[in-house]
Amino acid sequence: MTKLSDEENRIRALTDLDATLLVEAAAGTGKTSLLAGRVLILLSSSVPPRAIAAITFTEFAAGELRERITRFLDELLAGQVPVELKLGFPEGVTEAQRNALADARGRLDELDPRILPQPLANLCGRSGHRSRCGDS
Known about the structure:
The protein is an all-alpha fold. It has one domain. 46% of the residues lie in helices and 3% in strands. The protein has a two-stranded parallel ribbon. Helix 1 packs parallel to helix 2. It is globular, with a radius of gyration of 15 Å. The chain starts with 6 loop residues before the first helix and ends in a 10-residue tail after the last helix.
């Protein structure tokens, strides 16, 4: 597999679970898969679905995110790591992670991707004010 130019940033987004991050990139670059992967790594670490905040800008993106999380979760539970998540699960899923994911699967309805209201979305990179929405 060819190394992506932003691979280090992708790994951080997937695995630096103590940081709050904003992912900003062009359409079609993998933001939804990256966010879904981060959610799944949190779930595999036994973080309850209700404790995860996944924020998007549109209803469509929230629906895509829900679908991607569910699909990736089912693949992980079947013992397959989706190519989009290989950076986050390089050795595959451990038994402890699989057990945490199986538990989370039954409570996935507690996870509710949120839509960021448009006035706030405008502050997050859409109008040149990126510094207000960086990592904390």
